[in-house]
Amino acid sequence: MKKVLIASNNSGKLREIEAILSVYGISAIPQSAYEIGDADETGLTFIENALIKARHAATQTGLPAIADDSGLSVDALDGAPGVFSARYAGVGAGTAAHNKKLLSALEGVPRAQRTAHFRCVMVFLRQPFDPNPLIAEGRWPGRILEEASGEGGFGYDPLFEVDGLLVSAASLSPRVKNQQSHRGQALRQLVDLIRADPFLGL
C-alpha cells in the first residue's frame, strides 16, 4: 500500500500530512480528487469526528482512509474551543474571526495562565466499517500569545507559542513544525501501526 486517501479538504492539513507521508514513500490522495465534500462533524469527541470523516470518505470510494480531528484546548477557558475549534466563532467563520474571539476570551488573562495545547487524533480505516480502526494521538503544549506572530502555518498557529521555543507555531518552518506538532506526532504513530499490520505492510 503506497497510496492513502486523506479524508480532508483543509489545505493546511493536507500540506502537512502529504509532507510527512512522503518521507515514508506514501502518496497522499486528497478526498477532493474524488469530489468528496466535508462530512458533518456531529461527534462530541476528537475520536468520534475523526471516525466520521474517515468513514465518510471510505464509504464513497471503497478505499482505505486516514482522517484526523484536531483542535486547541486552552486551560483558562476550561478546554475550549476544543472539539469546536474549527467552529469557535460560528459555522463558516474564517480564521481571523476564530482568532479574534480567542483573544477576546483571554483579554486580561496573564501570561502564566494562558497555557494551552493542540491535540490531534488520527485514525485509519481499512474499509468503511472497519471493526478495529487504527488510532493514534498527538499533543503539543504551549500558551496563547496576546497578539498574532509569524507568517506561516494556519488556523490558531499565529497565537500559539510553542513550549521551549518561545516563538509561535506560525514562525516555524514547515519541516520543524511537522517534527514537533500534534499532527506530526499522531501521523508518525499511525504509520507505525499501519506498518505493523501484517495485512497492510507499508
Folded structure, characterized:
This protein is an alpha/beta fold and 202 residues long. It has a single domain (3-196), classed as Alpha-Beta Complex (Maf protein), CATH 3.90.950.10. Helix content is 31%, strand content 21%. Strands 2-1-3-4-5-6 form a six-stranded mixed β-sheet. It is globular. The termini are close together. The mean pLDDT is 94.
Short description:
This protein has about 200 residues and is α/β, with parallel strands linked by helices. The protein has five helices and six strands, in the order βαβαβαβββαα.
Structural class of the helix and strand makeup?
alpha/beta
- Compute the separation of the termini in Å: 6 Å
Helix content: 25-40%
Radius of gyration: 17 Å
Low-confidence stretches: none
- What is the C-level CATH assignment? Alpha Beta
Assembly category:
single chain
Main beta sheet, described? 6 strands, mixed
Strand content: 15-25%
Any idea what the shape is? globular
The total count of strands amounts to: 6
CATH architecture verdict: Alpha-Beta Complex
CATH topology: Maf protein
Taking strands numbered 1, 2, ... along the chain, how are they ordered across the largest sheet? 2-1-3-4-5-6
Number of helices: 5
The SSE string, one letter per element, is EHEHEHEEEHH
